[in-house]
Each structure stands twice: as structure tokens, then as C-alpha cells.
Amino acid sequence: MQKQSDMNPSSAARRHLAAAVLAVCTGAAALLSAPQVSAQTVRAATSKKPVDVVKDFLQNTAPDKVDAAAKRLVAPDATYISLSFDNPELKQIEPWAGTSKGPEAFSSTFSRVAKYWTIEDFKVTDIFGAGDDVAVFGTFTYRSVAVGTSFRSPFSIHAKVKNGKITYFQFMEDTYASASSFRQSGSWTVKTDPSAASYEVGKAK
Predict the structure, then answer these.
(1) Residue 98: left if φ>0, alpha if ψ -120 to 50, beta else—which one?
(2) Domain 50-185 maps to which CATH number in 3.40.190.10, 3.30.2130.10, 3.60.21.10, 3.10.450.50?
(3) Residue 143 and residue 118 in contact, taking contact as beta carbons nearer than 8 Å
(4) Pairing between β-strand 150-162 and β-strand 117-130 as defined by DSSP bridges
(5) For 158-175, b where at least 16 C-beta lie within 10 A, e where not — what string?
(6) Most buried of 15, 123, 152, 153, CB within 10 angstroms?
(7) pLDDT (tens place) for every residue of the chain, 205 residues total
């Protein structure tokens, strides 16, 4: 016949058993709650207003920040239209000009802008939205690194945001001024008025 002490687990054994049960229950609870936390995180990200998403991106366009901002705030198939739809001659001067796709288009554009020019001022004067659409207006002053010519330009942005991600971004500026900031010499002979004589523009100073 077994002794009573052999038939009943010791207090130490009971403690070990309780601890094991608690660990299993805790692990199960964590697994059950994990999808809820993930869903909350997704909801928080997508609940940001389109204007706030665009503001967030514009505040993080420095070369050391723009790559992470683009990956976080730009949709994988987003369209970026920079200055023109497609202008091969302008693209020779400003390689980011034209239509491109994805977060890399955003990060590479702002990184190269910071390489080609010293950004002396960049100011948003107005930003507002309607539905998924966001409009931004402002001014900037850049100085070309290679030539040292500075210029001031207005800019405008039309962006679209869906589910917390930028899906469309069109950036416009004074491209005549920006391209001219790289000019070292030369001028154009132009004829605008059919009834007037031709004339030269862009003479070297």
C-alpha cells in the first residue's frame, strides 16, 4: 500500500504545476492578443489625415531621413511627377524630372536635389485637403553647388493619399530658374512675337 505522502503531490510539486499552467495560459493570452495589437497599429497608421501624411513626408526630406520617410509613407506603386510628364532635355539637366514610380523615386529625387543645390530656404505657406487630395503651396531658395548661382521659386504640390500612404505626388516649380542656376555660359536667340524681331535671352553676366 502506498503511503499518503506518495499519493498526494508535495507542495513544491504543486507550485511547479501551477507555474507551468500559468505559463501556458499567459502564452495563449499573448497569442490571442497579438492580432488585436497589430490591427490597432494598422488602424493608427491609416487613420492619419491625408494632410498630416504629406506634412510628415515634407518634414523628413533631408538626405539622412527621406529614405525612411518614403518607405513609411509612400505606396509601393505611387506615381511621382517631377516638373514635367516627360522632357528629355530637362532631364539631362535635372535627372529626376519626369514621371517615375515607387518610394525610391521620392527618396532619390530629394537626395539629388540636396546634392545639386544648397537649400537656403524651403517654406510651406499653405496646405489643405479635400478627401484624398492634398494641395501644398510655398517658396524656396536654392543655390547650385557647382556654379554658385542662387534662385528663388514658388512651388506647388498636388498629392493623393489613401490608407495612410501617398499614392500620387506632382511637384511643380520655376524650371526655367532652376535649370538656369546651372548655366555657365551661352544664351538663346528667341522669337516670340510673330511681328517682332528675334532677341537674345540668358546672356552671361
Answers:
(1) left
(2) 3.10.450.50
(3) yes
(4) unpaired
(5) ebbbeebbbbbbbbebeb
(6) 153
(7) 544 444 455 555 556 555 554 544 454 444 344 444 455 544 555 579 999 999 999 999 999 999 999 999 999 999 999 999 999 999 999 999 999 999 999 999 999 999 999 999 999 999 999 999 999 999 999 999 999 999 999 999 999 999 999 999 999 999 999 999 999 998 999 999 999 999 999 866 5
